[in-house]
Amino acid sequence: MDELIPGTLYLVATPIGNLKDWSVRAQEILAGVDIVLAEDTRVTGLLCHNAGIAVRLLSFHAHNTRQRIPEVISQLQQGHTLALVSDRGMPAISDPGQELVEAIWAHGLHVSVIPGPSAAITAFAASGFPAPFGFWGFLPRHGEPRRRVLAEIAQWPYAAVVFESPHHMDRTLMDLNTSVGICEIVLGREMTKRHEEYWRGSLQALVETPRSWQGECVLVIGPRKKIPGSSEVDWPQLVSRVERMIEQGMHPNDAIRQVARDNAIDRRELYQRLHGY
């Protein structure tokens, strides 16, 4: 077991789904520190109970950050050891832990990271998209903040990772389709669990595919390609490619969708040119 360093805040990763991904080191750190700061004490309490770990829990979430940070700083200055966890994955990535870590640095105190599962890294690794990538976490729900973030993602030329709950997936996909436009996207759902699913295709196809969303989702929006103007596209060549794919047994809609996706062109215009409209 690691020897705990007095006055240190440990950032401890927890499983994003599969409990077997939780490291022995992470569990030992939680068992050894004086206080565990938890996003939801019920979630962390159950996780630790099932692992046979006795911990002293203290809530640390978006609604009590201002109150808690001075308390944590005081505890560390007295030489106590504390750990910070989120409900799932690495803390201080998509939760208020970032503000705490910044305060730790500002006060000349110590931080140690006990790495482990991360939903953003897991989904990006599965995407097949090239680095770099940007991470936005959960999108704002309403108004100007949401529009601003959607505009940022639309202008970001590389892959972008966002989180979304099942209740808001349809709306978020439609908003992304409107703001980002033609691109590839990877959906990660129930990652590391029994019903894990990864899906890759065009954003438009995902919008048009009826689904019953279950479990929190991670979306990896692919790097944006420069969309050529209609006059720059070699339409006869692309139409011929679609026709060959159909002759080889592919469904016409699937062939059109794939060629449009591969060449970052409008699927509807390709359809019209294929049928001579």
From TrEMBL:
**Reactions catalysed according to its record:** cytidine(1402) in 16S rRNA + S-adenosyl-L-methionine = 2'-O-methylcytidine(1402) in 16S rRNA + S-adenosyl-L-homocysteine + H(+)
Cross-referenced Pfam families, in alphabetical order?
TP_methylase
At the top level, the lineage of the source is Bacteria
EC numbers: 2.1.1.198
The UniProt entry, under InterPro entries, shows: 4pyrrol_Mease, 4pyrrol_Methylase_sf, 4pyrrole_Mease_sub1, 4pyrrole_Mease_sub2, rRNA_ssu_MeTfrase_I
Its annotated compartments are:
Cytoplasm
Question: What GO terms fall under cellular component here?
Answer: cytoplasm
Q: What class of enzyme is it?
A: transferase
**One Gene Ontology term of the molecular function aspect:** rRNA (cytosine-2'-O-)-methyltransferase activity
Which stretches make up the Tetrapyrrole methylase domain? 8-206
Keyword terms? Cytoplasm, Methyltransferase, rRNA processing, S-adenosyl-L-methionine, Transferase
Using the UniProt record, give the first listed, main subcellular location: cytoplasm
| Record family assignment | Belongs to the methyltransferase superfamily. RsmI family.
* Protein function: Catalyzes the 2'-O-methylation of the ribose of cytidine 1402 (C1402) in 16S rRNA.
Can you name this protein?
A: Ribosomal RNA small subunit methyltransferase I
Which species is this record about? Sulfobacillus acidophilus
Q: What is the lineage of its organism?
A: Bacteria, Bacillati, Bacillota, Clostridia, Eubacteriales
Source gene? rsmI
